[in-house]
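for the writeup, i need someone to sanity check this before i put it in the appendix. the sequnce is what the collaborator sent (i think, or maybe the updated version? ugh). structure was predicted straight from it, no edits. if anything looks off just tell me and ill rerun, i have time this weekend
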Amino acid sequence: MQRIQIRNFGPLREIDLEIKDFMVLIGPNAGGKSTIAKLVYFFRSLHDLVRDQLFFEAWEHAKQLNIFSSATGIAEEPREVYENVHQKELAHVEKWVLDAFKHLFTGYSGFRIQWSTGHGFIVLESKEHHPAGVEFSGEIQEGWRHLNQQYRSFMQEARQSRIYASNGQQQFRYRMRILLHEKAYQMFHGPAAALDAPEESLYCVAQRSVLSAVPDDIVQSKESVVHSWTENFIFRYRHALQNLPKQPVAWAASDPEDPELRSATSLLTCLSEISGSEVYTIREGRVMLRPLDETRRDVTYPLEQASSGEHQAAVLALLLLHQFSEDSGIGPRSRLLYVEEPEMHLYPAAQKSMTEMLGLWFNYHAGNKLFITTHSPYILTALDNLVQAHETAAASEYNDEAVAEIVPRASWIAWDRVGAYHLDRGGRTQDLKDAERRSIGGQQMDEDADAIQQVYEKLLDIKYPAEA
């Protein structure tokens, strides 16, 4: 179980949410939806932060300790390196966490945020006009001590055994990264949680179509104002385009027995339903699309000339498709995905297909976790359809085939894995799950629709006044 409790942070006054595997936040602008999503992303990524910091230090220590040297004998260990490797305090982690937090969230004070995992908790707190401090629960502190011990033992063995001498750098990097990935995740989630450790986290910002076209020289410039959220997104997208197959549709259809390729085919089908086109080729980082309309099959055009909705959907789909291509032949790996406004520039029917595409990605691996922020009730309704499909099929084995003809089986979502909340501009939340009906929607969405309808009815009252 994961839970976030927020007090006086940005637009959020008092928030207490259980974070499910498939999370949806809906509500008006400036309610704090993206703030919550980014905080969840931050806390869920702390094991990556610890892993990467230790990995960088391990590489530097390995060179200083002559671990890769082929010289016989063991030279005396430099005292300052010895102390760094053997006496690393929890204060190191506190500094890493606070530096990362201040880099991502600037200008905040007078708040308290607690993140709980079921194993332990982390508290970030700041008095008014004072910098934030961090507190780790005893379980997480113990996890750090265990991680630190494993790190020290690895470095000692590497130095004494000389097994990485003479061009053993690649093996050292591989083994160290596996060790740190597992132990850093256990630090925050408990000793039994290593098998669920996600491979990566991807935050898809709302401006994804614009950012996909940002020139490299702007991103890499020292004067760049590109934020960390967007910089990470741009890097992932460029990497995907450089490594995806040149003809994605043909590649996905090349082996019907490969489960990753079947998932890729389903994802590309969803994209075609959204946009009315298919990804024709990807060459030298440029995506070419082709209409599905049979009368226009000889036409191709670059992604940057596509409609706004088509562009937004294609960028997201290509990122997810790249994950499937990475896993082809080795099996699926768990990941975390955060998507701001998946409905952006999309017609309601296309929003349905977008939700099904995200449901397909979510079910691709049992460890996948998805967090959506949206303004669209159509996204919420489409998600409820996926939940109802799962509920209906589970009610009787005879329902399965009939339900699959209406809703793609790969997109069905289990009720218990979903969390759905409405946020208002006062930073307050309302649970949109109806436990009695086991559905998602809620009274708040009906009230929003009624408010629009009431405007129409008032205009009719003026246009056709009642007779006295």
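Residues 38 and 123 are 16 Å apart (CA to CA). Residues 221-226 have pLDDT under 50 and may be disordered.
thx in advance!!
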